[in-house]
Each structure stands twice: as C-alpha cells, then as structure tokens.
Amino acid sequence: MKGWKNIVYTFLTLLIAVLASCTHSFNVAGGRSAAAEAIQQQQASWTRAHTLRKEDVPPRYDVNLDLPEEDRWAPVLVHYNKTMLAQMIKNALATELPKEAIPLVDLIGSELNKYMPTPYSGEIKGIAKFLNVSIGEVFALNILYEATAFCTSIVAVDSDNMIWHGRNLDYHLADILRNLTVVLDWKRNNRTVFTSTSYIGNIGVFTGMKPNVFTVSIDERDKGNIYENIMGLLSALMNGTSTSFTSFLTREALEYDDTFKKVYTRLVDSHIIAPVYYILGGVNPDEGVVITRARLKALDINILVPSIDKWFVLETNYDRWTTPPPSDDRRDPGIKYMKAVGRKNINDKTMYQVLSEPPVLNNKTTYTTLMTAAQPGLFQTYIRHYP
C-alpha cells in the first residue's frame, strides 16, 4: 500500500507541475489577454447579429442508465472512429502530461476500484475497453477535465418570471474538445432523467438540466493554486472519504434530486475535492443562485432577488468580492452586456448574444449552452469558434 501511495503521489506531483505551467501560459500569454484588448476595441458591438450555423450544433445521443456501468457509453462511442478518438485522448494527455507521467496512469488504472466509486469506475473501464486505451488514460482525462476549466455562467429571470441559464465553457484544449462536444440525454426506463452538455470521455457533468426542476453549471474557482486542487483529489482517492469530484456531485444531483431545495442543499453542504462555483437555476422567479464553494463549506451565496430588480447573477472564475485580473476580466463586460439587454428583453437569443461578446467569448471557448428547466425542449448547445 505504501508503494501504491508513492506511485500516485509521484504521478500527481508531475501532473500538478504541468497543469500549473499550462494555467500560467493560459492566463498570461494566451487568449484572455487578446480578448481583453478586443473588448476595448469593440465596446459598441454587443448588439451585432450572431448567426447560428447548422454545423455549430453538436451531436446528441442517449445514455441508458439501465445498462450495466461498463456498457453505458458504447452506444455513444460507436458513432466515432475509435482509432481517431483514442488518438485524440492520447494527444490531449500528451499535451498536458510530461512523458515521465504517462506510464504511471496505467498503474493508477490497475487500482481504480479502490479509489473511484460506482458507477464511475465501471464507466471508465467500459470507455477504456471500447476505445482500446488504458483505464489510467481515461481516468487521467477526467482529472484534466476536473482541474482546468474556465467558464462564464449566467442565470437570469425575465419580465414574465421565466428563468434562463446560459454558460460558456472554456479550455486551453479547445481545438480538441470542440470535436468531442456532445449533448447527452441520460435515460432510465426510457424516460429522460436529465440532459447534459459533455465531452466524450468525461463521466461527470459540468452543464446539465433536470426537466422541470433545475439547471446547473460549474465554474472553476481560480485560487491561483492548482496544487491544492490536485492534493484535494489525492486526499479523496487515498483516504476513501466522502469527498466528491465536483462534476460527480452535479451528476448525482441531476439524477436523484427532484426539487430545487434538495439540489441546493446538496451543492452547499457536500464536501468536494476542489473550490468551485455552482450556478443553479430553477423554475420559480427567485430560484437562481451562485454558490461559492471551498472544499468543505460554502463561502458565499449570491441569489436572484427580482423584487429589488436583482434579476441576474453572473459568475466567471473569481470571487465576486475580488477584482478580476486585467488579463481575464469577463465579469465586468458580461455585466455591462446584461444590463444593456435588460430584464424585459432577456431570452435564449439575447443570452446567446451576451455570451458571444469578447472577452466573454474567446479563443478558448468550446461551447455555449442555453437552457431553462421550465421548458426542457429549449435546451440548446452550440460549438463556438472565436472570429
């Protein structure tokens, strides 16, 4: 057991170093700075038309929760060229992980049942078997998904008291992940339990909707310390505690919680592996909230209060009581665009416009999702390409 712990610790230490390097280049030298400059040049452009092309819509598939865990993803994966998909995963890991760490992911995979709860361990094994890649590679891919997302989420209530929820999900692996974006309808007894926008190989949920109950998205909470996030993951895996992956918690909420109060309580009270923001929308006019989470507790609750004209809440990746860095200020432009639209004009189309303005939209944006739990048929996702 001691040798196993050393192996995991070595792997995660290497992973931490490369993730920290990637995040530094993303924030300082990457698309955020260019987007911040673009916003200054295009202050008057927020009302421009954004044409939605057919090719912007990702494929949509069912995930049958009645199937055994290891078989659930095969009906989705069968639509892809297995060789090309496996190579995409390997390329993503090769980009993010040092060569020295690659052999260690197989060792992690060999002990997955000890450290990953059901149904997730079984699903990871099933994906790995179907694609003929190692279990450790699929596991490592989910670590990357969990640790490196940047995002913008907005929940708003319109003048007819309809709740609208929009989000952009940004990654520095954007070119790869655009090709892996899918909409999934998770079904039991041939009934849709929830819908998500996901990436192939990602078994958690970062963007989802439970019909007629709630919508949810996760934004990474940037504390400038990926080391702590990964060490939280290490602790959860090694100690077998009740600490949850942040995206597994939302999946469990979508599957099992049938009221806004239940999901709110779950997201506020559960112990999680990394600090995040949970953005939650319901079906009633006051059911919109941003939950600022540390690993063991909620630090801030930012709610809709339509009675005093607080009709939207917006979150990027920074605590609302702090100032975003100049190289990555999507919050202030986003708030400006929302105020310009106004409560009486907010809907899925105008929310899409807000999420299409730089730097809210940037060259790392992989997709935009628009959703309202009160009208599940309006769930829509578009793969984004920064002009």
The string of secondary-structure elements, in order, is HHEHHHHHHEEHEEEEHHHEEEEHHEE
Fraction of residues in helix: 25-40%
Overall 3D shape: globular
Pick out the low-confidence regions.
Answer: 14-52
Q: Kindly report how far apart the N and C termini lie.
A: 51 Å
User: Rounded to an integer, what's the Rg over CA atoms?
Assistant: 20 Å
Report the β-strand fraction as a percent range: 15-25%
Mean pLDDT: 84
Keywords summarizing the entry:
387 residues, globular, eight-stranded mixed sheet
Q: What can you tell me about this protein's structure?
A:
The protein has helices spanning 2-29, 31-41, 74-77, 82-96, 102-110, 112-115, 120-131, 135-147, 174-178, 226-239, 246-256, 260-269, 331-341, 348-354; strands at 60-64, 150-157, 163-170, 181-188, 191-199, 207-210, 214-220, 276-281, 288-293, 298-303, 312-315, 365-371, 380-383. It is α+β, with helices and mostly antiparallel strands and 387 residues long. The protein has an eight-stranded mixed beta sheet with strand order 1-4-5-6-7-8-9-10, covered by helices on one side. α1 crosses α5 (102-110), α4 (82-96) packs across α8 (135-147) and α7 (120-131) packs across α8. The model is unreliable at 14-52 (pLDDT under 50).
